[in-house]
Amino acid sequence: MTGACTRRSLLKSLGAASTLIASPALARTSWRIRGSGRGVLRLVFYTDIHASADPRRSDAVTMAAGAINAQKADLVLCGGDLIHGGFDARPDDVAARWDAYTSMARAIGAEHHAVVGNHDLVGAQPGDGSEPAPDPRLEFKRHLGVSRTFDTFDALGYRFVLLDSLRISDAPHMYDGWVSSEQREWIREVLSGTPSDQPIVVLLHMPLLTAFFAATKGATFQAQPNRVVINNTEVLGLFADHNLVLVLQGHLHVSEAVQWRGTTFLTGGAICGNWWRGSFFDTAEGFSAITLRDDRIEWEYIDYGWTAPRHEE
Ligand SMILES: [Fe+2]
Predict the structure, then answer these.
(1) Distance from the CA of 267 to the center of ligand 1, in angstroms?
(2) What totals of helices (H) and strands (E) does the chain contain, helices first?
(3) How far away, in angstroms, is 73 Cα from ligand 1 center?
(4) How far away, in angstroms, is 211 Cα from ligand 1 center?
(5) Structural domains of the chain sorted by starting position, each given as residue range(s) with its CATH number in brackets
(6) DSSP labels for 231-251?
(7) CA of 91 to the centre of ligand 1 (A)
(8) Percent of the chain with pLDDT strictly greater than 70
(9) 154-187 pLDDT, tens per residue?
């Protein structure tokens, strides 16, 4: 394929439509894409761990790491909320939660990348009324060994774009789903050096597109600003002339797929399920196994087998 391929011609060739797949009972699903043409890339996408110092949850994340390793993925991607409750805590209060998460991350054998979630913004608004942390992203960066919370890299001809989808707010809802102007400018730069047919995968915490609220609250329900990316159409518009095949998103703790104009938006369930109290809207504690092939994506949501203690259900 040449760089002259446009998004319109891609959509025509793919027969683009809008589809919602929200049934975790679908054992395995696949759909067509225009891949990189360089072979098979196996991904694991896991999100919303909400790690804590509770030993039962440490057992769960150990089980999850083992199940992730059993997939023998080439690349493992994490969608944020690595720890639980950092937003209103102070750094000293969450050290054991980071220990629980980093032990899981170290146990994962494959190349591994993560984006920041709202719970990872440590000290953004301390509950004890003390001064907010000067940089609520500092603990995330320190534990992940990264200098900033957005990045890009290539793997087997796919271009991965990792975004920070959070903006701290003084409003009662405390934070917005938001992709900053700095990142939008950076995305423009990245895409200016990206051939229009090169397949792109975006990873972020807050959903860029979801049917969750229409499905659970009613068709006219308006999602709160801290549940979705507010400026989603602006962000998606940046990719309009490119081959954005997949968006991996977290935060909602349900497993869901939405297809829109040639892009599939996968909401990745949660390692912690219903915040460690069982399943959430029929999504068990689990993660996604994704295979990118030259002509299609295969996707499966995998229950890694942990069961919430009865008294927590
Ligand atoms: Fe979240």
Answers:
(1) 12
(2) 7, 15
(3) 25
(4) 17
(5) 7-16+33-294 (3.60.21.10)
(6) THHHHHHHTTTSEEEEEEE-S
(7) 18
(8) 90
(9) 999 999 999 999 999 999 999 999 999 999 999 9
